[in-house]
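Backbone-to-sequence.
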């Protein structure tokens, strides 16, 4: 009996291939999407026809920076966990240069602001005049929404202190 033949590999290592795959699937970062939401969300929803993009660039999710082939695919995407995670990530104000300087010791800490984020309106609603709103949530509502039981205990402690 002879020896078992060894399988020949095509590549010694596939790190160069992995790098190409990683870059090809890259999406826009949260700070870039936040800038798009503030400045040109209506423009991105109503794009001109581009034959090279999926759905001829007519169905675009601004929050995920992704094109879809038709409206049903886009509406199904709005109900997915991926889209909801992206909305949740966009609720917190993105990391900025000022925040980096404060972290380095130039200034004092400022808590990032929380915002109310809604899914983008459909094309018909945009034509009718509805826009994507990015509103800041006041801190009082934010703390009450996070822990209603703690606010009750604070009130009880304050009442005990008064008597």
């Amino acid at each position: 009996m002879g020896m078992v033949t060894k399988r020949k590999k095509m590549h010694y290592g596939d790190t160069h291939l992995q790098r190409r795959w990683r870059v090809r699937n890259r999406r826009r970062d949260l700070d870039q999407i936040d800038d798009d939401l503030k400045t040109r969300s209506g423009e991105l929803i109503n794009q001109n026809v581009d034959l090279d993009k999926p759905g001829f660039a007519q169905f675009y999710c601004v929050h995920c920076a992704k094109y879809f082939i038709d409206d049903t695919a886009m509406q199904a995407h709005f109900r997915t966990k991926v889209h909801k995670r992206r909305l949740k990530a966009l609720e917190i104000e993105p990391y900025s240069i000022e925040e980096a300087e404060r972290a380095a010791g130039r200034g004092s800490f400022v808590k990032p602001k929380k915002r109310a984020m809604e899914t983008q309106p459909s094309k018909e609603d945009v034509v009718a005049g509805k826009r994507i709103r990015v509103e800041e949530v006041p801190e009082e509502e934010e703390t009450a929404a996070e822990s209603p039981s703690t606010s009750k205990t604070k009130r009880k402690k304050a009442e005990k202190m008064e008597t």
